[in-house]
Amino acid sequence: MAERDSNMPSVPTYAGTVAPYALSKDPSSDGATVLSVTPDSPAYDIGLEPGMRVLTVNGKPLTDMIVWLWETEDVEAEIEVFDPRDNTVASAVIERFPGEEWGVDFDGVVFDGMRTCVNACIFCFMNMLPKESRSTLTIRDDDYRLSFLQGNFVTLTNMKDPEVEDAIDKMLSPMNVSLHAITPECRRKLIGRNAPRGIEVLERFLEAGIEIHAQIVLCPGINDGDELLATLEYVEAHPGITSLAIVPLGFTKHQKRFTTSYSDDVEASRAVVKMLEPFQQRAREERGCTVFQLADEFYIDAHLPVPPAETYDGFPQFYDGIGMLRSFLDEVESVRAARSSEVARVSERLGESSRRVLIISGEAAQGTFGAFCSMFDADVIDVFTIKNKYFGGNVNVTGLICACDLLGQLPADLTGIELLIPDVMFNYDGLTLDGLARDEVTAELEQRGAIVHYATPAPNYLLDALA
After folding, report:
1. Which positions of the chain have pLDDT values less than 70?
2. Quick one: the chain helix, strand, coil %, rounded to 5?
3. CA atoms of 420 and 465, how far apart (whole Å)
4. Residue of 48, 46, 68 lying closest to 56 (CA atoms)
5. Which pLDDT score is estimated for 1?
6. Which of 249, 252, 327, 429 could join 128 via S-S bond, C-beta 3.0 to 4.6 A?
7. SS3 379
8. 240, 209 Cβ separation under 8 angstroms
9. pLDDT of residue 20
10. Cα–Cα distance measured from residue 55 to residue 4, given in angstroms and rounded to the nearest whole number
């Protein structure tokens, strides 16, 4: 690499910090920090090492992974690299064979600071957190790049025209967009004064052919009823919106605006299910897919069976809670058929050792985990439901269980108990939402006499943990 002397690059401002799965750990510096380099790869061959920073690619500042993917799609690219050991910048041409990986990993996907939210959404969960919550939980990201790269939902209200044009030029598709409502009055009430910009950008994306996965957070008495009907008709008239997820309002005790939601009203939940049925039917007839999807909570709250798997269109919004319940139940039946001998061995092992397994669950998933337990001999495995007192309100999902509730509600004596704890309780760094490390949770439970297992909350993984 040809070197030229340079002072350390200028420092951009950084909007906030979130989990390292998305954002660079070194946002105070230009470029992308190299996290690792694969031996004998193109990156290795030109001398890239962990800790260096790639500043530009083909003359473009490396601000995010979109720039990297766009500029390095061919077999060679010119890059500038900053070496912190001697504060020099060197340029090099990195080359590869067709189809070969570049062999470099960066420490995130967004390197120049996150685009934060400019809205005042009345249902924003970040504004309902306890005051003592760590700062990384209260960052309100609304970055269109994370929508494309990570599947985050964004409102598009903070996008400037050059960013819109760049997204269209690069065809950043699909994009996940928080729609919530379509009438201007309702959108302003829900989102704030920037709401019109979101629809303007959305329609520019649709016109350009960018596929949209949309979302509605349904708030009783605000964007339901006729407002929901108007939004459904808008989506039906725009085939570029290939899926619409409708999720119920979630609220905590740390706010004063909401006191009820669909979890408290069976008939209201059933009314939402019924409203969607003709839209779903027409979509299947005209588009060949369901398009209009309800969060699993609606079926739980309405005391109705979840739809069959084929109605979920391949689960495009699975991680928005759309179809997780159906997927789990179907996988239980698959495990029951394909792994019956392992299920029998676990039952036998537990019976011989006089041990019992307790699967930790939020209130919403109690019946779902119960389906997994039904495969085993009676009395060897059961669900232990944790009530979320830390957040309160209607928060009842397993992924939001906090250590204080887990440790506070489990018995003091856990001798003879194997605990099966879903790993969704912990973040990338192994912390619960109230800040306790997984090792600390394990140590406390083992001190009470328990054997502790952690697993992804899916039947095959749960069985793996026990087997």
Report:
1. 1-29
2. 40, 20, 45
3. 8
4. 68
5. 53
6. 252
7. coil
8. yes
9. 36
10. 14
Long-range contacts of residues 422-427, Cβ cutoff 8 Å, at least 24 apart: 422/359, 422/360, 422/361, 422/398, 422/454, 422/455, 422/456, 422/457, 423/454, 423/455, 423/456, 423/457, 424/398, 424/399, 424/456, 424/457, 425/360, 425/398, 425/399, 425/401, 426/454, 427/19
Determine how many CB atoms are found less than 10 A away from the CB of residue 2.
6
For 2-106, CATH number?
Answer: 2.30.42.10
Encode pLDDT of 24-73 as tens digits. 444 446 899 999 999 999 999 999 999 999 999 999 999 999 999 999 99
First-residue to last-residue Cα distance in the chain: 53
Strand 241-248 vs strand 292-294: parallel, antiparallel, or unpaired?
Answer: parallel
The pLDDT score that the predictor gives to residue 29 is 63
Q: Look up residue 67 and give its two tokens.
A: 């720039």
Q: What is the pLDDT of residue 207?
A: 98
CATH of 125-322, picked from 3.40.50, 3.40.390, 3.80.30, 3.30.310, is: 3.80.30
3-state secondary structure (DSSP) of residue 197: helix
Give the amino acid at 63.
T
Cβ neighbours of 140 (radius 10 Å):
17
pLDDT (0 to 100) of residue 429: 86
Token duo for residue 344? 């029998």
Percent of the chain with pLDDT over 90: 85
- Residue 243 tokens, joined: 């899926």
CATH of 329-466, one of 3.30.70, 3.40.1350, 3.10.170, 3.40.50: 3.40.50
What are the structural domain ranges in the chain?
2-106, 125-322, 329-466
